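INFO  loader      accepted 1 record
INFO  loader      residues=237
INFO  predictor   begin
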Amino acid sequence: MPTPTVVLVHGAFADAASWAPVTAELLARGFTVRVPPVYNRSLVADAASVRAVAEAVEGPVLLAGHSYGGAVITVAGAAENVVGLVYVAGYALAEGESLGQLQGGFPDSDLAAHLVYTPYPVEGGEPGTDVSVEVDAFPAVFAAGVPEQTAAVLAVSQRPLSAVAFGEGAPVAAWRTKPSWGIVSAADHTINPDVERFGYERAQCKEVVELDAPHLVMQTHPREVADVIATAAAATA
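INFO  predictor   done
INFO  writer      dumping tokens
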């Protein structure tokens, strides 16, 4: 099989630019890379969007998901041409399980006390609620370890997540039929690292790498993240 195209899936409170250092690293190594937007409206809708990107690729695809993006690839990874999953400080959900349910089994991270809930209009329906991170708290709880100026930019350009996504169960868990790899951010203040460890163990990841890294490990440790993705790509080629 040919080397898979790597599709990098960002998480909540971030956008595709959060993957920029890893994207540059993978491109320099000769990988074909796609970094689509995730609209953060609902787990099912976001997974359908990413799945459409994967299915538009000719040949095999390796999905890598950060944070909420891990939940997205868990569902989108059911696409036939997806050959593997890489979880990067991410949620590896089981069938029927929601983000809230998985997180609820562990002590809260520092993030929980710094979330902001903002109503948004929904045409023809009840208003929805966007969830974001307090701008002043963002550097410490979400972008720890990132240069101060970069963290400040990320804080004011964050993409909120609809509250619907927290309670929506995953209709499928692609890790049951696709090989997976995991990266634990041991210094994560956004997701309790034990949530990551538990999900990866349950998914029987082929390899789990623990890094002394914050939540935005793609920004602080791009080479190490790219190494895990390259290992997964080689194993699925």
